[in-house]
Amino acid sequence: MNSLLLWAVARMAPAWRGLGADPRALRLILATKMKIGDRSLKHMGQTQGKSSDYSILIYCLLFLFGIILIFIYLAVDDKATAVGMIFTFVSVYLGFMLVTEMSDTLFDTRDLMLLYSRPVSDATLSLSRGLYVYLFASKFVLPLTVPLGLALLYLSPLMVPVYALLCVLLTVIIVSMTLGLYLTLLRRLPPDRLRRVLGYLQVALTTLFIVLYQLPNLVNFTDSGDGIFDLRIVGTPWGLLWPGFWLGGVWDSVIHLGARPLSLVQGALGIGAAAVGVRYYVRQGGNYGSQLMGVRIAGSESVEDASETDAAPGFFARYRAWWGQLTTRPGPERGSYLFNTALMTRDFQYKQQVYPGLIIPLIIAVGFAGRRLIKGGDGLEAGAVITALYVFAFLIVSPLLSARLSENFRAAWVWQTNPVEKLNAILYGQLMAAIGVFFVPVGLLVYVCVWIVGGVAVFDDILLSLAVILLAAVIFQYTERSLPFSIEKSDGGFHAIGPMILILFVGSLAGLAHYGLTFIPYGVALGTVGAWVVCLLALRGLRR
Hints:
This protein is an all-alpha fold. It has 24 helices and four strands. Helix 4 (53-75) packs antiparallel against helix 5 (79-99) and helix 18 (382-391) runs antiparallel to helix 23 (494-517). The longest helix is centred in the first third of the chain and has 34 residues, at 122-155.
């Protein structure tokens, strides 16, 4: 596939020359980058090595998702809206991947370590970076979009070229706008502050894409007849909100030959966004080499960051101190709690992995509460409420899972210089840190939303699910036999994923048992008492 992509780049030599780049040097740089194994982008937090098995698995999964997108095209009566919805899904996925998996590669200072046989202009160097990210992103867009393209060969062959062009435009829009934003920050910010700002930006953008991904599940608060089948967005003012629907406007304009004027406006926005995005990225690429050199010299942190004190508001600092004194004993427990709390609240890599995901339970809870407030009545059924309650285990297990794996070793030296006989105290302090930092603050809002949905009748369900979630977190800690934040991601493997699968399996069984207890008189109350007894015994065992 690399050869095919490089061939396509070579065919566009006049365009690169018009943008001020050297086409031959551009192709050689891209070929070199794509051959260097350790320059490969990350897939789901794992760096791609020599073996391509993991990449093939990802491509197969994306191809399966692409098959699902065919059903969206068939289900929605307005085909332009269906295409817009599909492109919206693809754009959200691509944008999410760019700001998470590819974020470290967007500003890769190792570009400066390549040896060039002749001077290379900033335009060539900047375009090589943009094209490298674009070509790699295309490998993920293709499996998502090819299934629908094959279906269109049978359903509407004349629209296949239009669909292919729109796929290219969508990738250009998302990649160029993302890279343009990053290059703007590179030009405007001092090098020693750039990575810090990018860390917060990554958290914010990841949260935004998660909200966009979950939003369709939350907006259907009212019954609308056939629902999604009669949905129409392209050709209406709602179609102006997202680039995916702009490209749906191009599709609509081709089919109806301009019968819906607003579709023409949206289509013009889509084509214009691609052109403006590329032009803006090229203009921001001036002085790219020296700017990138400044980032490399500055490193990942400034001196001020290394000596930074707790920047959290006084209330949260006092709350964390109070929670630590309440739940841990002086010694290894308290030390582990303070150590894990500091890393969970200050380390950018950890924030980028954990913080955006916390929005998922919050969105579910707020969406359920919004449904109840808007529609009124009895709200959701018991099964839906119970399912949501067990999804909230994500608020504890996800921070604990991310605390096992790290890009750099951080914890081993702490516990080696202060040796402990057993890990239980360390793991207990880590559990209390995850509960205090994540579960309690977010959980309060989540459970208030659940109470709005179910009322007083779900109080015993909340208590039972809470006991099961805490018990699952304790079991998860029992599976850990290493130090916090001390396992390199590339060495994590099944050591981290296996316990997560175990917890998901046990949690599913617990949720089914909880639902079964609702059909037994006083079953949930008795189950709550039993679950809390087991949970407290397990916590006691972890502390011993």
